[in-house]
Amino acid sequence: MKKIDKFWNWFLDNEQAILLAIRLGIKTGEVLSQLNRQLDAISKRIVFHIAAANEDQEKGIIIFSAEGYTKLFPKIRALEQQAPELSYFTIQAFIKPMLDKTDIIEGTDSAYEFAGYDIRISELYLSLDHFDLRSKKIRITLYVPEYGYLREYNDLESNLELIMMEIIGEMAFRKHIRAFQIAGLPDSKKGLLKLIELQDCIDHLYQMDARRKTRSL
User: Fold this and answer.
1) Tens digit of pLDDT for each residue in 102-111?
2) Mean pLDDT confidence for 114-143
3) Domain segments of the chain as ranges
4) Rounded to two decimals, what is the model's pTM?
5) By CB neighbour count within 10 A (0-12 exposed, 13-18 middle, 19+ buried), where does 115 fall?
């Protein structure tokens, strides 16, 4: 794809400026705006997330995401496949499932800021409202602390979608989450599941379907 080749040619010419913008805050707004404009030439629905290198990594990671929009999956794959060898970054297609959930399970995870309120994944709960064994799709309700205030936050739904993608992965989110609604977290959490258990909930559908098929043999 010529547009993707053009994007990577620009990126190569500006890779060091991107690194300095992320690591040292040099012209960050200007540089990231340019990066967005270059990516918009491929699709305005493609987004990126940049994680700077830490002590265990030689390079930072740039994740390209369609935020679950399946029609863009081929372009996301092409961005990864056509990426040149970079000096400071590695490229990843799609938001991958979370591997280490220890901090969330222990309740020591870092907070996300929503309209001035700090919300942790460990504080989010869900209920399973409907499921389809054949398609493995579910409808859920997400229970959020301080929802009375946060419901006016325009990006609340999209941010919660992103959190779910970070837990189960972008492709699994699109495959299994048919719909979700948001509600305030009740005082009693009896009968609710922690959001971090979302993948376990999906896995349970496969187990139920396997048992159903075995009984029908």
Assistant:
1) 999 999 999 9
2) 92
3) 2-93, 102-216
4) 0.85
5) middle
